[in-house]
Fold Lytic transglycosylase domain-containing protein.
Amino acid sequence: MWRVLLLVTGLLWLPPAGAWCFRQAGERYQIDPLLLQAIAIKESRLNTRAIGYNRNKAGQITSRDYGLMQINERHIPVLRRYGVLTAGNDLLTDACLNVQAGAWVLARHLQKCGPTWDCIGSYNAGFAPGNAGLRQRYARDIRTIWLYLRRQEKTG
C-alpha cells in the first residue's frame, strides 16, 4: 500500500486540461472524476503514450492496452464503428479521448455488475470467476488512490 501512496504523491499534479478531461468524462458517464483519475494513475501512471502488453502463461502477447486509461485493443472496432476513433493512434495522441473511452468501458462494466468495488476491479481483471483475486487487489489499489485523491481535493 505504501508503494501506491508513493506513486500517487508523485503523480498528483495534473495540468488543468487533464483535470477537465476527467471531469467531462465523469459527467458524461455519471462516474466520479476522481475514480477515473485513480484508474489512470494505476493503469498508466498518467502516461498518455503508455502501451501495455497482456501475455498468456506462455509469455505470448495476447492483446495490447493504450494510453492513460489503458484501453484494450478489443474495444477499438466498436469505438471505430461509433466514429469515436478515426486513426489507429487516436488513443495515444488524444488524452481526453482516451479518458472518455475509459469512462465508456467502466460505465459498461458498471451496467453489467453494479457500483461495487469488485466491479471496479473488473476494469482491469475482467469478469472471469478465476480472476476474483486480481479484481480484489486491483479494486483495493484503486480505492486507496481514490481516497487519497479525495483527501487531497478537500484539503486543497
